[in-house]
Amino acid sequence: MSEKKIRWGILGCANIAVRAVIPGTQKSETGVVAAIASRGIGKAQETAEKMGIPTAYGSYEELLADESIDAVYIPLPNHLHKEWTIKAAEAGKHVLCEKPAALNAEETREMAAACEKAGVIFAEAFMYRYHPRYQMIREIIASGEIGEVRGIHGAFTFNNAKDTGNVRYQQHMGGGSIYDVGVYPISAARFILGQEPEAATVHGFFSPEHDGVDMMASGLLEFPNSVALTFDCGMWAAGRNVLEILGTDGRIEVPSAFVTNGSERDHFIVHAKGESREVQVPYLNQYALQADAIGRSVLYGEPMPFGPQDAVNGMRVVDACLTSARERRRIEL
């Protein structure tokens, strides 16, 4: 374990930060959470005391001015990602930005360029990709056990529709189910296949009760070699968090595909040759692994598993999905 630690600052007291990212980063080998900021000092102090964070700031600017902070995590609403990523980069901070990276690919390019100019890391917070089980899945596919991949299906849904004041249901803030949870199966298919889709067709349910954001979406992404991802995502539907990879000779079933439970549900199942076997995976904190990937890159120069261009490419796909859903047509990428 390294004696030197990356000192993290948290820009905002969002639920995802308090519930998952801060505790995970505190469990990491390479980092400590040294400061947190909010738009008012009261909220920042309350969260700092609750989470055992030594320093609280009443503005994001104050935290960025703290020269002892090496990296920041940005869990702000989607429409603020670009502004605060660029400001953090200009302040010399490495950036872990909550997904989706921004509102569109162009914003993401600007963020990546600002971080490159400042010589800092830019990472999009898809924590699940840092868990070793996805590398295990890729290795099983590469081994030929399930044959040639014919298709992938992913679903990520939950029901929080009664909370109409939630930022997820504010159009100008980048609300909607594709931004919030659809990005997970989209990124998983890109990662598993190691390719970018060629076209997107998505049908969306846009709710007038929720500022017109997509509360449910069902989509088809066309990948090279006639492979497709079918997915659905929703914020007004029963909860699901699953992925299936279908091959010519078998399939892989991932019951807790994106949000893990620290239980047997984290394992995945391989169905092949008329038999099924459960592949056990280690119970690891995905958020700690994510922080450590950045920490090792900063401390030891290890390459990041997912660079800024991956975030740009992912947002190009999200752009196409949103355009398809709104205009009800197939979008070529």
Automatic annotation (TrEMBL):
Cite the InterPro entries for this sequence: Gfo/Idh/MocA-like_OxRdtase_N (IPR000683), Gfo/Idh/MocA_domain (IPR050984), GFO_IDH_MocA-like_dom (IPR055170), NAD(P)-bd_dom_sf (IPR036291)
User: What residues does the GFO/IDH/MocA-like oxidoreductase domain cover?
Assistant: 134-253
Q: Does the keyword Glycoprotein apply?
A: no
Q: Which residues form the Gfo/Idh/MocA-like oxidoreductase N-terminal domain?
A: 6-124
The Swiss-Prot or TrEMBL record annotates one GO molecular function as: oxidoreductase activity
Q: Which SUPFAM superfamilies match?
A: Glyceraldehyde-3-phosphate dehydrogenase-like, C-terminal domain, NAD(P)-binding Rossmann-fold domains
Keywords on this record?
Oxidoreductase
Family to which this protein belongs: Belongs to the Gfo/Idh/MocA family.
Q: What PANTHER family does this protein map onto? A: OXIDOREDUCTASES (PTHR22604), TRANS-1,2-DIHYDROBENZENE-1,2-DIOL DEHYDROGENASE (PTHR22604:SF105)
Name this protein carries in UniProt: Oxidoreductase domain-containing protein
